[in-house]
Every structure is written in structure tokens, then in C-alpha cells.
Design goal:
CATH superfamily: Ribokinase
Number of helices: 9
Shape: globular
Helix content: 25-40%
Distance between the termini: 42 Å
Strand content: 15-25%
CATH architecture: 3-Layer(aba) Sandwich
CATH class: Alpha Beta
Number of strands: 15
Bound molecules: alpha-D-ribofuranose
Order of helices and strands: EEEHEHEEEEHHEHEEHHEEEHHE
CATH topology: UDP-N-acetylmuramoyl-L-alanine:D-glutamate ligase
Length: 308
């Protein structure tokens, strides 16, 4: 067990079943796909692995399945130097995600939550020691919402900052937002929460500002190859440029961003630096195939200009 926890990720783990396709089949049609790869995924686990590969001391609170995927997932956490004292084994099969990646790198994902549904609020109370020791807690939405709400309340009680990634988009109880320090949606999640358009940067800024009015302290919108946008009260929006890279597979790029941001934040970097570095790390992750497989292990610094 690690003594100091820089980043505690409370969330999902999933086995990714990735088919690389030329095109998706129509109803009733069978289409041959050029290749397939299996790899470790799940938004929570991806974020934990990204932070750990950048050098953070990471612990994970999650529930793996009672099958081979569960055994392999647990071993993968160990191989990635992640504290597994909060990794439980559930009574059902591991979460799985059939993923389809098209030739331009775009992806479509189905998630079967499996044992992730067993990460209940009671588990958090059993593992309260992990929560108390964390410098920052990272949440996403592939586990039961009551668990996230409990995590937010406990984090507030122990004065631990919360990074909340509202992915995949679900109905988010807006009354929890004042307790969230850093909300990191992508553009479609931002639209899902605010019901506002995000087709231009101006629209994205307006939608992010709406979230501030719900009480979130900071909103950081990930915008893929267009970079990231940070909004906080009383300040102009900060726009970090996208990186000009050749996208092969964008699966897990948002998680790479969140995990890297958590690492740089826990290390005490300024928010701007953490966002710039997270943006660069996410860009590196799209240049190769796979989810966690595409996360580099060392700090590659690809800094870019920041615009007010
Ligand atoms: O964000 C990418 C992840 O979403 C994949 O790893 C898949 O498991 C789904 O959870």
C-alpha cells in the first residue's frame, strides 16, 4: 500500500474490445473489419493509469468482475504501480466495452457496466482511509450516481478537491455542482448538461459560463483537436490550442487529459500549466492505437500558446 496518495480515482474499470473498421454495418448487414485488439479501459481506470504513468502516486477505488477479465484488470493495476487496496471483486462479470474505431480515428463505444454497478456508497465508507489520504479525488459517471454523490460529500467533509468528469453524459444532479472544484466535460457532455449549443468557441464559452452559474468553481472543456477551454468566475476564458497531430485512435483521449490534469494539479502546478500539459498528453495518446496502450509513460512536454 502506498503511503501518500496524490490521486485517488473512484470509478470504473472495463475491458475494451476494439474493432478497427472501414465502415459500420447497416441493419441486417455483416461487414468484415480489418483488425481487433483487446486492452484495459474504463474511464476511471484509464485516468488512474494516465496519472500513474506520469509519475503520480495513484490509488483506485473500483470493482472488478469475478472472471478472468477481473483477474487481469487487477494485475494491470499492479503493473501500473496503482494501489489496489481499494480494488474489490464483485459478484458478476467484469465491465466490457465493444468499441468501433473508424479510419479517421473516430470511435463509437458501448459499455456493459458489469461489476462496476457494485461500487456502492457503502464501499466508500469501508475505504474511508483512502479518501482521507488523497490530495485530489477524480470521479466519472460509469459507476452508480449515488456513489459519486457520496464521494463528493465525503471529499467536502475532508476538504479534498474534486475533479469531476461527467462522462459518459448522464443526468447530473445540478445540486452537487457547487461542491465540484473542477468540472471537465467534453463538448457533447457540456451540451447534455446545459442544453446549450457548442458549435463555436463563443457558444462553448457561454455554455461553460452557465455551469459557473450553477456553482462550479472551474469548468475545463476538452475540445479534441481544438484544444481546451478553462472558465472560472471573474476571469476571461483561457483557451489552450489543440495540437497538430495525426489522429489514429481517439479512444480514451479525454481520460488521458483528466488523468494528466489530476497529476499536474496534485503536483502543485498552476491550473494553466496543468491544462496545457494535459492537453499535450491527450494529443500524444491519439497518435497510436488503443486506450491505455496509447498513454506514454514519461513526461513529453509539448507546450503551446495560451490565449486569454
Ligand atoms: O473513455 C474511453 C473509455 O470509455 C473506454 O476505455 C471504454 O472502456 C469506455 O469506458
Amino acid at each position: 500500500m502506498i503511503k501518500d496518495i496524490d490521486v485517488l480515482v473512484i470509478g470504473s474499470n472495463v475491458m475494451d474490445l476494439i474493432s478497427y473498421v472501414d465502415r459500420l454495418p447497416h441493419k441486417g448487414e455483416t461487414v468484415e473489419a480489418p483488425s481487433f485488439e483487446m486492452g484495459f479501459g474504463g474511464k476511471g481506470a484509464n485516468q488512474a493509469v494516465a496519472a500513474s504513468r506520469l509519475g503520480a502516486q495513484v490509488a483506485m477505488l473500483t470493482c472488478v468482475g469475478n472472471d478472468n477479465f477481473g483477474v487481469e484488470t487487477r494485475a494491470n493495476f499492479v503493473a501500473n504501480h496503482i494501489d489496489i487496496s481499494g480494488v474489490l471483486t464483485g459478484h458478476q462479470s467484469n465491465g466490457v466495452a465493444p468499441i468501433f474505431v473508424e479510419s479517421n480515428g473516430d470511435n463509437r463505444i458501448l459499455v456493459v457496466q458489469g461489476a462496476n454497478t457494485e461500487l456502492t456508497p457503502e464501499v466508500l465508507l469501508d475505504k474511508i482511509d483512502l479518501i482521507k489520504r488523497a490530495k485530489v479525488i477524480v470521479l466519472q459517471q460509469e459507476v452508480p450516481m449515488p456513489t459519486n454523490i457520496k464521494a463528493i460529500h465525503l471529499a467536502k467533509k475532508y476538504n479534498i478537491p474534486i475533479i469531476y468528469n461527467p462522462a459518459p453524459a448522464h443526468k447530473l444532479p445540478l445540486d452537487v455542482l457547487p461542491a465540484v472544484d473542477y468540472l471537465i466535460p467534453n463538448e457533447s457532455e457540456l451540451t447534455a448538461i446545459t442544453k446549450m449549443p457548442v458549435s463555436t468557441v463563443q457558444e462553448t464559452k457561454a455554455a461553460a459560463r452557465r455551469l459557473l452559474s450553477f456553482g462550479v468553481a472551474n469548468v475545463i472543456v476538452t475540445m479534441g483537436d481544438r484544444g481546451a477551454l478553462w472558465i472560472t468566475a471573474g476571469q476571461e476564458a483561457t483557451l489552450v490550442d489543440g495540437q497538430d497531430v495525426n489522429a489514429i485512435d481517439t479512444t480514451g483521449a479525454g481520460d488521458a487529459f483528466v488523468g494528466a490534469f489530476a497529476h499536474y494539479f496534485a503536483r502543485g502546478e498552476s491550473l494553466e500549466t496543468a491544462i496545457i500539459q494535459a492537453n499535450a498528453y491527450a494529443a500524444l495518446s491519439v497518435m497510436t492505437r488503443g486506450t491505455q496502450k496509447s498513454y506514454p509513460s514519461v513526461s513529453h512536454h509539448m507546450t503551446k500558446e495560451v490565449h486569454a
